[in-house]
Amino acid sequence: MCAQIIFLHGPSSSGKSTLARALQAQVDRPFWHVSIDHLRDSGMIPIHRFRAGDFDWMQSRERVFEGFHTSLSAYADAGNNLIVEHILDQSEWGGRLVALLADHDVFFVGMHCDLETLNRREQQRADRPVGSAQRDFDTVHDGRVYDLELNGADPVDTNVSKLLHVWRSGRRKSEFRAAQLM
Ligand SMILES: Nc1ncnc2c1ncn2[C@@H]1O[C@H](COP(=O)(O)OP(=O)(O)OP(=O)(O)O)[C@@H](O)[C@H]1O
Predict the structure, then answer these.
(1) Is the distance from CB of 134 to CB of 120 less than 8 angstroms?
(2) Which of 22, 47, 125, 146 is least surrounded by CB atoms within 10 angstroms?
(3) Digit-coded pLDDT (tens) for 105-127
(4) What is the largest CA-CA distance in the chain?
(5) Contacts 24+ apart (CB under 8 A), 156-159
(6) For the whole model, what pTM was predicted?
């Protein structure tokens, strides 16, 4: 069954979670909001033990993310619509997700945001390692091909309207669509 997937991609603090929550509240059908943050913050992943040094995060990281990526296709294969917010930290993760989600209608959204705003938000929220936004800002959009690009500094309602308008048009041109046509 073909599911609808709205994939928000951009640096830490660009506003992905905020937009995902607003979208989920306004869109006209049920969508799950899925993020690795939910696994981490719910305690599903024993992040405190990794942080305490009991376990080696670098040894586990790849299988944690491979599990997360394959879970997305399992949810979608069962017919669930997803709003995914994610940062493609490793270049190979993009290709992996393109393959895993090939049977679904993926709408890939690039979230941009100026560095000053990102840094200010990161400082205010104080729940991300300092420098996360700067690190992502430098590389996160390299080589990516999106269906839509948004400015995460714009009001969230403006971005919800823009996103839903283009998503509903059915126009797809991102790397997810290009791979399906090959
Ligand atoms: N459009 C907006 N206008 C004003 N503030 C915003 C907007 N979007 C997000 N914020 C604020 O910026 C901070 C980071 O937002 P959010 O958690 O949505 O970012 P994120 O991209 O999901 O970050 P991460 O990848 O680190 O989880 C929050 O404090 C949020 O309230």
Answers:
(1) no
(2) 125
(3) 999 999 999 999 999 999 999 88
(4) 49
(5) 156/15, 156/18, 156/19, 156/22, 157/22, 159/15, 159/19, 159/22
(6) 0.96
Paired tokens of 26: 């306004």
Q: What is the pLDDT of residue 128?
A: 87
Domains of the chain: which residue ranges?
4-181
Taking only the tens place, the pLDDT of each residue in 133-170 is 999 999 999 999 999 999 999 999 999 999 999 999 99
Question: Looking at the domain that runs over 4-181, which CATH code has it been given?
Answer: 3.40.50.300
Q: Which two tokens stand for residue 176?
A: 């997810």
C-beta 155 within 6 A of ligand 1: yes
pLDDT at 31: 98
CA atoms of 83 and 89, how far apart (whole Å): 18
Mean pLDDT, the chain, integer: 95
Ligand 1 pocket, residue 125 CB under 6 Å: yes
Pocket test for ligand 1, best of 6, 12, 17 (most atoms within 8 A of CB): 17
